[in-house]
Amino acid sequence: PRTIRRDDYTPPPFLIDTVDLVVELFADSAKVVSRMAVRRNPAAVAKPADLVLDGKKMDLLSVSLDGRAAAHEATPETLAIRAVPDRFTLEIATRLRPQDNAELTGLYKSRDIFCTQCEAEGFRRITYFLDRPDVMARYTTRITAEKSLAPVLLSNGNLVERGELDGGRHFAVWEDPFPKPSYLFALVAGPLDCLEDRFTTRSGREVTLRIYVRPGDVPRCDHAMESLKKSMKWDEDVYGLEYDLDTFMIVAIDDFNMGAMENKGLNVFNSKLVLANPETATDLDYHSIEAVIAHEYFHNWTGNRVTCRDWFQLSLKEGLTVLRDQQFSADMGSAADARIDDVRRLRAAQFPEDAGPMAHPVRPDSYIEINNFYTATVYQKGAEVVRMMHTLLGPERFRKGMDLYFQRHDGQAVTCDDFANAMEDASGVDLAQFRLWYAQAGTPDLKVEGRYDAAARRYTMTVDQSLRRTPGQPDKKPMHIPLSVGLLDGAGRDLPLKLAGEAAAGGTTRVLDVRNPRDVFVFEDVPEKPVASLLRGFSAPVKLQAPRSEEELTFLMAHDSDPFARWEAGQQLGARLILDMVAARKAGKPMVVPDLFVDAIRRTLDDQRLDRSFIADAVTLPGLAFLGELMPEIDIEGMWAAQQRVRGVLSQQLADRWSSVYDANHGSGPYRFSPEEVGRRRLRSTALSYLSTDKGEAARRRAVEYFENAKNMTEQVAGLGVLAELGGAEGDAALGAFHERWKGEPLVLDKWFGIQARTPTGDTLQRVKQLVDHPSYDRKNPNRVYSLIGAFASGNPVQFHAGGGAGYRFLADQVLATDRFNPQVAARLLAPLGSWRRYDAGRQTLMKRELARIVAEKGLSRDVFEIASKSLD
Ligand code: HT7
Ligand code: ZN
Predict the structure, then answer these.
(1) What are the Cα distances from residue 126, in Å, to 187, 250, 268, 781?
(2) Peptidase M1 alanyl aminopeptidase C-terminal domain: which residues (predicted)?
(3) CATH number of the domain within which 96 lies
(4) Which of 217, 324, 517, 849 minimizes the number of CB atoms within 10 Å of its CB?
């Protein structure tokens, strides 16, 4: 397969100003006629005689140029129109079979609903086109269908006409006034009900809001609608950005490869990110719905109005929009929890990516299949990069930068450099070195050491940075890293900070500009030996090493005024002692949990000033993904044994605390999705989980009681997770009862599959294999596949890596089977095998064997080939 390189970018030789589509939908096919106004691009480098369009998996019916049959030649992925004039009208007719399209890209059917997914390169499966984001056109879409088959006909923009046709058919015409790239095109048709509402923009324009769902699901749309209105208001308040069409529509679809898609005026969502009521959705679902609705809505400006020049610039829209949705989530609830969540996600998914065979810069240099680059690096690390600019510029100058970005580039397809230029020009802050964050892959290591000179009342902080080699990038340059720090006195109070050379102290948190392999920062007038609070707010996506004693970490856990740093101190301490225990276990020594840690957790549980969510975060031990990143060679059994040991000790020694937390947070009244109520439920289920660690009779009884009395899905899922882990008759009974109750609810059934696949105890692989044959399993539904196979391979390291390679073999089989009809999903499943270098020699051999088996398969998709072959390199 061909590698596409960023450096090879050239402007398109032709531009397409308008596209008039006529899409006729039938039970077993769709006919598409596309009429395009084409002209040569004055900015093009080359002047080819032929126009070469992209196209895939369609039957070509006809091609005409200015009304006459045109000389043309089709290959499986292109259509060349011979010797075209400078300006012309091109009309192309194609026929497709949406009902047979299991790739869920282009035009496909999700049960009886026709729907499209065009990002990144799906439009070329609907009609032949210059399917690249820098070709922006104005679209008109006329859809016709049998009324009984598809009573609702939707596309981008505003509805301009609708009516009846002969033979029980009807039509609708949609006009999108905004030029857009083809990846933002959307069409949806089928039997749908809708929830309607209105939003008045701050300039007084009335916008109709509609959420379309399967008949019967309208009562589950209220939370999504509220989230949408909050997002619209927030974007006006915080960024001054208003919605620009008369209608904003969301459609919920059951079969969807990703979370959601920001098509102009017609967002298409995975139904799990729309539908919610307390009986069927968890707090986490409510949170995800709010965040993703916001994310897709925010794309209207960061992505749609200003889009990407080419797919290497994907983070231009995704990193920026993730940052915006993170800011929104922080404003909707607790900012501290939101930041802890961001960092947990980054460490669990992006840090391993940055340390593995698929490591790539936020702005990649090359790809074989662009769908493989919708990654944690492009999204989450991309958001951290924009957040660092926010930190370096400060909120006012950052906002000025955003304003300038829109002023300069509204209606254009631009690059990450254009974004950085706007930030630089609006603020006067030099971002030359900072731009390396877009270019260099890998997570920087930061070593910070402090020395106090009592006589000089001076505290010297020495910061060393280094960046390991990553595939294709052997030599790295030092980065510009904003390091946010504070100094605490002996009573835990923030000291005012004055750097050498400054006339007076300025604030108690300072952002240090780290730019060199070694930087030294001197704080003056420091009255006593301080405890340093480092990387406040997680000011940069780095791995921090600082020689801090366990006492210093517990001190920070108790006193740091920065909630992130306070939580982080506990994680660092937890990680340190778990890793010490792993080493002890390996050396045949006992695994000892120091009292100091138990005391610190006790103090956290007793601290009346802390909110419940924060306490739940702070008493949750570091996860295996994070711990694994800290080890030279991942020792899964060791980490698991040590983590369980710590849990056991905390469970026993703090039994009275867990019991009182459990009893005190019972809650009453109807379900509310509020920060307080979510915190209460989280803390209670965390206590339940600690109380269940000994697996004894009392624990089983309590868990059964919790599960059976659950008043909402959040509690049911928490109870079921604990019971599944406890196993035995109670676990089986709960799983059976849950299935019986929810077998008609696909989104709830996904949870049932997921909980079993993630259970770290028992013979999970055997169970997962049986579940693949369960009547409720659907290998063509991405949600079901991710909830079973994905959850097992990515969410259950203990079981995936057990069993002498049986888990690896199972995953490879599933990848190969899925690749035959849905390469995007298959490639996503494959990722865990890529981390083979991080394990012992035995596992390395077994994992590589499966990767080699995959690569050797005939007819492999580009998607799977790229991940599997790069993983072996
Ligand atoms: N921009 C959207 C990306 C997306 C996507 C990409 C490839 C294949 C299927 C897809 N569905 C959605 C989602 C977003 O980041 O907002
Ligand atoms: Zn996005």
Answers:
(1) 11, 21, 17, 22
(2) 551-872
(3) 2.60.40.1730
(4) 517
Probe ligand 1: pick from 261, 328, 863, max atoms within 8 Å of CB?
261
pLDDT tens for 285-342 read 999 999 999 999 999 999 999 999 999 999 999 999 999 999 999 999 999 999 999 9
Q: Domain containing 407: what range?
A: 308-439
Task: Round to whole Å and give the CA distance between 739 and 734.
Answer: 9
Whether residue 330 is found in the same domain as residue 450: no
ipTM: 0.98
321 in the same domain as 284:
no
For the segment 829-848, the average pLDDT, to the nearest whole number, is 97
Share of the chain above pLDDT 70, in %: 100
Distance CA 10, CA 85 (A): 21
Q: For ligand 1, atom 1, which residue shows the shortest CA distance? A: 261
Please check whether residues 325 and 295 belong to one and the same domain: no
- H or E stretch at 282: none
Among the candidates 491, 514, 540, a domain finishes at 540
Residue 205 lies in a domain: no
In this structure, are 263 and 322 located in the same domain?
no
- Model pLDDT for residues 207-258, shown as the tens digit of each residue: 999 999 999 999 999 999 999 999 999 999 999 999 999 999 999 999 999 9
Dump pLDDT digits (tens) for 653-704: 999 999 999 999 998 899 999 999 999 999 999 999 999 999 999 999 999 9
**Predicted local distance difference test score (pLDDT) of residue 803:** 79
Q: Return residues with CB closer than 5 A to ligand 2 (ion).
A: 318, 321
Distance CA 675, CA 848 (A): 45
Q: Is the CB of 270 under 6 A from ligand 1?
A: no
Q: Are 389 and 340 in the same domain?
A: yes
Using CA atoms, how far apart are residues 473 and 442, in angstroms rounded to an integer?
Answer: 9
User: 546, exposed or middle or buried, with CB in 10 Å at 0-12, 13-18, 19+?
Assistant: middle
Total number of domains in the chain: 5
Mean pLDDT of the region 107-118: 98
Quick check: bond before 841 cis, omega within 30?
Answer: no
Q: Based on the number of CB atoms within 10 Å of its own CB, is 85 exposed (0-12), middle (13-18) or buried (19 or more)?
A: exposed
What letter would DSSP give residue 470?
B
Per-residue pLDDT tens over the stretch 359-402: 999 999 999 999 999 999 999 999 999 999 999 999 999 999 99
Which region, left, alpha or beta, applies to residue 168 given φ > 0 means left and ψ of -120 to 50 means alpha? left
Neighbours of 125 (CB within 10 A): 24
290 lines ligand 1 (CB under 6 A): no
3-state secondary structure of 633: coil
Whether 433 and 480 share a structural domain: no
Quick check: 683 and 613 in contact, CB under 8 A? Answer: yes
Ranges of beta strands (E only) in 26-77 are 30-40, 51-54, 59-65, 68-69, 72-75
pLDDT > 90? residue 808 = yes
Do both 233 and 301 map to the same domain? Answer: yes
Could you report the per-residue pLDDT of 439-465, keeping only the tens digit for each? 999 999 999 999 999 999 999 999 999
Reply yes or no on whether the pLDDT at 192 is more than 90. yes
- What residues contact 822, with CB distance under 8 A and at least 6 apart? 102, 103, 104, 257, 780, 782
Same domain, 225 and 298: yes
Token digits for 488? 């605490």
Is 661 domain-assigned? no
Q: How far apart are CA 469 and CA 437, in angstroms?
A: 14
Q: Is residue 520 part of a domain?
A: yes
Rounded to 5°, the CA angle 718-721-724 comes to: 150
Is 671 contained in some domain?
Answer: no
- Tell me which of 110, 119, 315, 322 to substitute to probe ligand 1's pocket, judged by most ligand atoms within 8 Å of the beta carbon: 119
Q: Which two tokens stand for residue 721?
A: 């997770």
